[in-house]
Each structure stands twice: as C-alpha cells, then as structure tokens.
Design goal:
With 305 residues, chain A is of the alpha/beta class. The first copy, chain A, is 36% helix and 24% strand. Chain A has helices spanning 28-36, 54-62, 125-133, 147-152, 154-160, 171-178, 183-191, 232-247, 254-271, 278-281, 285-299; strands at 3-6, 10-15, 20-26, 42-48, 65-72, 79-84, 91-97, 117-120, 140-144, 166-170, 197-201, 207-210, 215-218. A nine-stranded mixed β-sheet of chain A has the order 5-4-1-8-9-10-11-12-13, with helices on both faces. A four-stranded mixed β-sheet of chain A has the order 3-2-6-7. In chain A, helix 1 runs parallel beside helix 8, helix 6 packs across helix 7 (183-191) and helix 9 crosses helix 11 (285-299). The two termini of chain A are 32 Å apart. The relative contact order of chain A is 0.15. The A-B interface holds A 86-89, 181-185, 188, 202, 204-206, 208, 215-220, 222-226, 255, 258-259, 261-262, 295-296, 298-304 and B 86-89, 181-185, 188, 202, 204-206, 208, 215-220, 222-226, 255, 258-259, 261-262, 295-296, 298-304.
C-alpha cells in the first residue's frame, strides 16, 4: 500500500564546521518522502513557491512520489538556515523565513483521501490535524513532532495525540514533554497521553520503542563521519512509515514495528553521509539491505549466524 | 576457571535526592567480585583497615570469593563519599580518604599467581601493572579505568594498555582519552593504543564493544527507578569477567564477549536497584537468566522467539 506524507518542503542553507551549502532541498516532508519511497509509493502533500526548482518534481517522479498534493503558489519557498557546532551534535538556527508556508492550508486531492498509512511529518500539530480531518479511514497514523510545538502549541499537540498510532520524537523532546529525566518513564508516560506506540530517537545512541506490552531498543549504525545531520529524524520517520506501508500488513504489530525502526535507522544513517538529500538520491535497495544486515549482526548476541 | 580481581575495597557514604547511607560496603573490587561470583570462583586482592566489618569476609565466603589476597592492616579502611544530582546522572565527590589504601602494594598469594582470567578493576594503573607483574601467564586480562587516571597518570595507563586484552571505560572517558567527540572513532582509536577489545559503557544508553573486525551495540535494561548508581560500572566489569571465566573457553572470541557484555549489563542493572551491594546480596541466578532473556527480547528484530 502507499503512504501519505505531509510536512514542510524547504530550501535549506546549512553550515557545518567543514562545509556550507545554500538553497538545497530540505524540509521534513522532502526527507520523509524520499526515505519512504524505497519501500512504498508516496503521496506527497505540501507547498512550494514559484522559485522552487522544477527538477525536484522530476526527481519525485523517478522515485514514485506522487506530488499531486504539492501546491505551487506565488512567492518564495520556505527557507531555513542552520549551523552545526564542532561536535555536530548541537545546532543553531540562523534564520527561518516561512514565506509561502505561512498561509499553508493542506488540501488533499480526492485520490489521496483513502490512503491507509499516514505520516504526519514535522509541521505544526494544527496542520497535522487538518490533514487527518480530510482522510476517510486511515489504518495507521504516524506523527513526528519537535520541541517548538511542545513549547508553543502544546494544546494542539495534546489534542492530536489520541488520534496518533505512533508518535516519534527525540530524547530531549520526550524529557521536555513529560518533565521526567528518565527516558523509560518518559516514553511510557507519553503513551498514556494517547499514542499506542512511542518511538524515541537518541541520535548516536539509537532508538527506543514503547508499546502496550513490549519494549525495543536498538543502537545507531556506527558511522565515523557525519557530513550533515539535517533531516536524519525526518528520514527515520519516512523510512519507518514507508516500510510499514510496503509490508501492507492488515495490522501493524510490535514485531513489524521493530523492523520498521531498524529500516528507519538505516535510512537515517545513509542520509547524514552527505549534504541535503544527496546521499538518498543515489542510494540503492541493495545498500539498504546490506546495512540492515549489519544492524542485525551488530546487535545479536545469541544464535549468531 | 576462576577470575582474579584486584581493586579498591571501601566504605562509602552516598547521598541521593531521596536517601543517604553511611559506611556501606563499596569500592571497585567489592562490586566486581560479587558481580563475578555469580559465574565463577573469585580470588580477591585488596586492602582493608582494622575497622572493616568481619561480616563482609563471611559474606565473601558464602559467595565463593577467596579473600586470601585481602590484606587487613592497621588503620582505617579507604572511604569515599559522593552525592548524586536530582537526575541521578551526575555526581559530585564530597570526600575521599585513602587511609590504608595510601600505601597499598598488592601482594598476590602464591595460589593466586596462576589464575588465567584477570580483572584489574578500577585503581591506579601502576597498581594494576604491579599485580600483572606477579601473574605467571594470564590468558585474558580485562582492565577498567576512570577519568582520574586519564588525567593524572596517563603515562602509566598508556604503558598498561598493550598488556590488556579488553579495556573498559565510559563514554566521556573514551572521548577524553582520544579528544574525539565521535564514540565510534574514539573506540577504534583506543584499540590502536593496545587493547585487542574495547568496551564503552554509556549508562542509560547501554554499551558498545569494539574488536579487530567486529562491532557490537546493546541497550541498557529499561529501569524506571535507579536508587544508587554507585558501582554500576564495577559490577558490569565483574559480571563480564566472571562470565568469561565461567565459560572457561580456550580462547575468548567476539561471540563470547557479546554475551559477556550482556551479562555485565544485567548485573549492573540489578546493582543500581538498591544502595551499596544490597541488591546483589540476595540476587539469584534465575533472576539473572530471566533478565538476560529480557535483553534478548528487547533487542531482537529478526527471528522473534
């Protein structure tokens, strides 16, 4: 089955201690859509300005990403600029220009409304809800969020949570959302706010997954060099939701979600190897399968091959 | 086979945000010896003062810990006092009194010198070397260290490393030792300093293991409540070395080390559930096996049970 993805589409300017690139494709939906496209057809919802390169629409076509839900409107595309500290772990936002994103009201094409797998990539919770309201009967809803929404639109976020099957957030956001320093207690507390499952991303330390009766923990792929961490979380969410859609299971269970978390981690680990989405542009399914196998080898301690 | 363990034996006073207990059994060798004793007979080397409770010698006997290498000398036992911050992650040392430990020169009883598995628990690298010099032909040497020795006796530590098969240290120490923020690069760089294997402890994020051709990553047991983190690393090292000794393999290989890291993590996860060594005092092998199985379940994503 296919996966509907809504989120931001941006042109990013990113500076690391070694490199700087301007106006590269970015935004949560861009990363998520390409990440998901390795596993399932994607229906993309978003907005771009008249300065947005036509070539990206061509690229989406090659990746089986249906851009019928991407509005092209007058004005400039959403722009974000950030700079990473020397350790590549902390980043500072240098500027944000919402531009056409400011008045974005996602409108789903009729052909999108029956999609059963939904990824609400990172945008304001009110927009995520607005998209969900237009869906007929989604079977599984994944939502990503960020500290900004926890701090500024908490009520909207809280209202969305009971409609979400899997919430994705990072470790500091989980701690902020619950006021609890223990990630284990925080993950379980967030489940009580509504989502059946919660995935906590921990960057270099991997990810945790909480379910009604189950718990899953995985490490991160042992990368020596990270060139651009931008979009790692979005790619994780996209890879995860794409894998779930691609499996087309009648019901998403914990065993399937474990593997989806690994595929999300695999995609994210590739994404940070180059600026913007450049690594994903030439990634192959064989490379994904190979790294999935590496994940298996690096985390097993019983019944080794 | 048995495991020889040398390190500190102390009486600790520990304060957490909720509790405070004075003059409880502590020290790296105390935690490591009891951790190891669940898997193999232990030969313990250390020093205590005339104020050290005789009851601990009795306890060691019940756990098959041979204290023939523990010198009892005139004076007070080594004392350490520390306080944990509200998040239980950072701690401050309030006081250290070396006492009888100041002039400690480990002397191995003749019956100890042929032991083939050695754990040099956390003490000054010069003392660790002094013990190693008295061993006839140890087959596998595990050494634990800490930031203090990296900062103050780096030359001694560097001289010891080529004699060590497995070095254990925590994430911040690995970063400090190499000046590299990437734990992956740091772990590999430390291997080039001498040890064939390096284990990096990451607290709530689990542990990493680096070998010549292999890499292993595991999470931490999902504990909601930590009562006293003191000795977690020492217990990890003890459980790990004890498991290796208990398996009595002719050669320690990476597959065996993976499982040893899990057993070390299991032991450490129990240890933090109560003050001092209190949880280890009534721990059973069934509880250990049960938690090992939980580790397997929480980290598998293929071939589920």
């Amino acid at each position: 089955m296919s996966v509907l993805i809504v989120g931001s589409i941006a042109l990013d300017t990113v500076k690391t201690p070694v490199e700087e690139h301007a106006d590269q494709l970015g935004g949560s939906a861009s990363y998520a859509a390409v990440g998901a496209s390795f596993f399932a057809p994607v229906k993309l919802v978003g907005v771009v300005g008249d300065d947005f390169p036509e070539s990206e629409f061509e690229f989406w076509k090659t990746r089986n990403i249906d851009a019928a839900g991407v509005q092209r409107v007058q004005g400039r595309t959403f722009r974000w600029s950030g700079e990473y500290a020397w350790d590549m772990n902390t980043r500072e936002t240098r500027s944000v220009a919402l531009n056409v994103f400011e008045n974005f009201e996602p409108q789903l094409p009729e052909s999108f409304r029956d999609t059963q797998m939904v990824l609400l990539a990172n945008i304001a919770p009110s927009l995520q809800a607005h998209v969900l309201n237009q869906m007929r009967q989604p079977r599984f809803v994944v939502a990503d969020t960020m500290d900004l929404w926890i701090q500024t639109t908490r009520k909207d976020l809280d209202a969305l949570l009971p409609r979400v099957d899997l919430l994705i957030l990072n470790d500091s956001e989980a701690r902020e959302m619950t006021g609890d320093t223990s990630l284990i207690r925080a993950g379980r507390a967030i489940r009580r706010m509504g989502p059946k499952y919660v995935a906590v991303k921990k960057g270099e330390h991997g990810a945790l997954l909480f379910g009604p009766d189950d718990f899953f923990s995985c490490g991160a792929y042992p990368l020596e060099d990270i060139h651009d961490p931008t979009g790692a979380g979005d790619t994780f969410a996209g890879g995860l939701a794409g894998y779930l859609a691609g499996q087309g299971a009648d019901e998403v269970d914990f065993a399937l979600l474990r593997r989806a978390v690994i595929f999300g981690s695999v995609l994210a680990s590739f994404n940070v190897e180059a600026f913007s989405l450049n690594r994903l542009r030439n990634l192959t399914s064989d490379e994904i399968d190979e790294r999935y196998e590496m994940f298996r080898l690096m985390s097993q301690f019983e019944v080794l091959p």
